[in-house]
Amino acid sequence: MCELVWVLESAYRYSSVEIADVLQQLMETQGLAIENSGNAWQAVAQYRKGFDFSDALIGLNNQSSGCSVTLTFDKKATRLNGFKKLAAFLEDEPAKK
Predict the structure, then answer these.
(1) Which end of the chain offers a freer environment for a tag, N or C, measured as fewer CB atoms within 10 Å?
(2) What would the mean pLDDT of 41-66 be, rounded to a whole number?
(3) Distance between CA 33 and CA 26 in Å, rounded?
(4) Which structural domain, as residue segments, surrounds residue 62?
(5) Is residue 71 part of a domain?
(6) What does the alpha-carbon distance between residue 7 and residue 32 come to, in Å, rounded to a whole number?
(7) Above pLDDT 90, what percent of the chain?
């Protein structure tokens, strides 16, 4: 799904609304199984709100796997629940000797 979003954005110049609609139609297709479909639906909802689909899906899958935080270099991704900028995370970690 992440690859599909990337291709539709970069190669075909679809708008985020068009892409979200395509993803929704894809997920509603009978006979097609989507891995972690609940997370995929939530990622589409976040994508509709202006977040990056891949970031949202990665973060949601990480949370489902028990991760408390997803580290990123992407400042925009840090607005998603569960994301933290890598540099800030490293600054918060106590020095290990």
Answers:
(1) C
(2) 97
(3) 10
(4) 2-66
(5) no
(6) 20
(7) 88
Helix (H, G, I), strand (E, B) or coil at 26: helix
Give a yes or no: residue 73 inside a domain: no
Cβ neighbors of 58 (< 8 A, separation 6 or more) are 70
Cα–Cα distance measured from residue 71 to residue 73, given in angstroms and rounded to the nearest whole number: 7
Whose tokens are 């990337």? That residue is: 6
For the chain, what is the mean pLDDT?
Answer: 93
The answer to whether 6 touches 54, Cβ cutoff 8 Å, is yes
| Residue 48 included in any domain | yes
pLDDT at position 65 over 70: yes
Q: Is residue 93 part of a domain?
A: no
Give how many domains the chain has, as a whole number. Answer: 1
